[in-house]
C-alpha cells in the first residue's frame, strides 16, 4: 500500500526542506503499528500507574501532606501524580523518537526512501515527531483518567494538563530525534536511558525541589522534565502562577531547536 502521497517535486529553497506533507509519515507509522506488539505499548502506560499506586498511595499514607513549590499543601499522591503524568508523556515520546528512529535511520534505511520522493527533511522530521507525540498523548490520557478516578485532579484547570503534556511530548520527541540522528551504535543509545533516569528521579517528581541545596536546585531547573512537572502540577492542583509561561516558553524553544537540528541532520545525511 502506498503511503507517501504525491506532492510537487522539490525545486530548491524552502521546497528543498518542506513539501507540506508530514501526515504521510504519520500515516505510514500508524499502518506499521498494526503489526507491532501492543504489550510493549501498554508496558509504558502501566509503569507510572504502578509508581502511583505503590508510592503515591502506599508510601503517601506514611508521608501525609507535601508542600509544593508554590507553598500549598497537597496530599503526597496529588503531589507525585502530575509529575508521573509529565514523565509518562516524556517516556512515550522518547521511545518513538529515539529507538524507533534509530532503527529506521541506521538499519531500515527508511528515511533514504522517503527523501527519494518529494518529501523534504522537515516533512520527515515533523512527521516522525508527530507520530511520537501520539504515544505520549495515549499514555498521558490514560493516566489522566486514573488520576480522575482517584480524585487527584484538584481543580478544573486539570483539563489543561492534556495540551500541556502534548507540548511536553512534542519537546522531548523533537530533541530526542535530533540527538538520535547523530547516534551510530546501540551502545551510544544507552546514554539516553543514562540521562532519563536521573532526570526522572531528581526533577521534583517524588519530593519537593526544596529538599536540595540551592546550587543543586539551579541544576535541576535546567532539566526539561522539571519544567514539565511544574507546569502540569500547577494545572492539576489549580495553583496558577506567571512562572508557568516560562515553562511553556522552555518547551517552545526545545521544539524549535529539535526540529531545526533534525531537519539539517537528515538533509546532511541523505541530500547533500
Automatic annotation (TrEMBL):
Matching Pfam families: ABC2_membrane
- Where are the membrane-spanning stretches? 38-63, 75-94, 154-179, 191-209, 244-263
User: Where can this protein be found?
Assistant: Cell membrane; Membrane
Supply the alphabetized keyword list. Answer: Antibiotic resistance, Cell membrane, Membrane, Transmembrane, Transmembrane helix, Transport
Q: What protein family is recorded?
A: Belongs to the ABC-2 integral membrane protein family.
Protein name (Swiss-Prot/TrEMBL): Transport permease protein
Q: In the UniProt record, does the keyword Cytoplasm occur?
A: no
Show where the ABC transmembrane type-2 domain sits.
39-269
Query: How is this protein situated with respect to the membrane?
Result: Multi-pass membrane protein
Q: What is its main location?
A: membrane
Q: Does the keyword Transferase apply?
A: no
